[in-house]
Amino acid sequence: MLDEVKELVSKCLQARDMAYCPYSRFPVGAAILTADGAIITGCNVENASYGLTVCAERTAIQRAVVEGYTQFTAIAVTCDIKDRFVGPCGACRQVLMEFGSDWIVYLTKPDGSYKETSLLELLPLAFSPAHLAKN
Fold it and tell me: Can you tell which superkingdom this protein's organism belongs to (predicted)?
């Protein structure tokens, strides 16, 4: 498992380097581990119309779905902030929840150090697809 985490962290750092962020200059990278063991990456892609910007986590999810994956076990996310761990934005947390609540989340610093947490810890009392089934 440790090698798998190291690879996931390494891939999210590589994805961050591909970010298209000419406006914020805030590159973000993400790497998702599928239930089958594949790693799918994403980076933030900004747009002059700021609301059309897509975060790294959502880019990775969209790429994974296009490739046929909908079951995930973990995600590593990183940005350029060196002095603390930074988590996904609220919108990305909600998008991750669409695909289950049992995610391990690795908050990763630029030097590769990481903090392990969970999606449920980052998004307590979350709204999920299960809520729609109760209507």
Answer: Eukaryota
